[in-house]
Design goal:
The protein is mainly α and 68 residues long. It is built from four helices and no strands.
Length: 68
């Protein structure tokens, strides 16, 4: 029997601040000091919230956030 997989976008499942907080806590535990892992987690959260909202809330430009 062949196993099939499909893409999974975690950002589509982070709807509330509580879900984002739980996701971030789990990622911190799992990352074990891996900065790239944490950068991916923060990117997931930014996509879930919407980059336009992140730009507004942070006071930074879209370009500076993309570089970060």
């Amino acid at each position: 029997m062949k196993t099939t997989t499909s893409p999974y976008a975690v950002a589509e499942h982070l709807r509330t601040p509580e879900e984002m907080g739980a996701y971030l806590e789990a990622c911190i535990k799992e990352a074990d000091g891996d900065a790239a892992f944490m950068a991916k987690a923060l990117g997931d959260m930014a996509r879930a919230q919407g980059m336009t909202q992140v730009v507004r809330d942070s006071g930074h430009s879209r370009e500076s956030l993309d570089k970060a």
